[in-house]
Automatic annotation (TrEMBL):
Gene3D superfamilies: Winged helix-like DNA-binding domain superfamily/Winged helix DNA-binding domain. This is Winged helix-turn-helix transcriptional regulator. Signal peptide: none annotated. It comes from Streptomyces bullii. SUPFAM superfamilies: Winged helix' DNA-binding domain. The keyword DNA-binding applies. Transmembrane segments: none annotated. Residues 14-112 form the HTH hxlR-type domain. It holds the Pfam family HxlR. Keywords: DNA-binding, Transcription, Transcription regulation.
């Protein structure tokens, strides 16, 4: 696959690019990484991720479920219990996302130095 394979297809996004957008979205990344540890109930996931609205987390989970990355297990009990876990496909995607997150953490000092050098060069010109 080349970068041109990820390009726009007319007015609509290519299907693989849309999945990439879902997986790498702000909340998609955090949901996938969190679910790598273990299944979570909605409220647990929301607390673990932090600063995500109920609406946004619901939308993210629905999108990832539709893409086949997240499994929603609604148990017919009172009170209702819903658990979210990764599918095999989701686990594979989450491992890739986690690798990128770990790389970001490991290279943050280099990024900060590059930002500082850039800002200094811009200020000097």
């Amino acid at each position: 696959m080349t970068v041109s394979d990820l390009s726009w297809d007319g007015e609509e996004m290519c299907p693989h690019r849309l999945v990439l957008e879902h997986v790498t979205s702000r909340w998609g990344v955090l949901v996938l990484i969190q679910l790598l540890e273990r299944p979570h109930r909605f409220s647990e996931l929301r607390r673990a991720i932090g600063r995500v609205s109920e609406k946004m987390l619901t939308q993210t989970l629905q999108t990832l479920e539709r893409d086949g990355l997240v499994h929603r297990d609604a148990k017919p009990v009172i009170p209702p219990r819903v658990d979210y876990s990764l599918t095999e496909l989701g686990r594979e995607a989450a491992e890739q996302v986690r690798a990128l997150a770990l790389w970001t953490t490991a290279r943050m000092d280099d990024v900060e130095r590059a930002r500082q050098a850039y800002d200094e060069a811009r200020a000097a010109s």
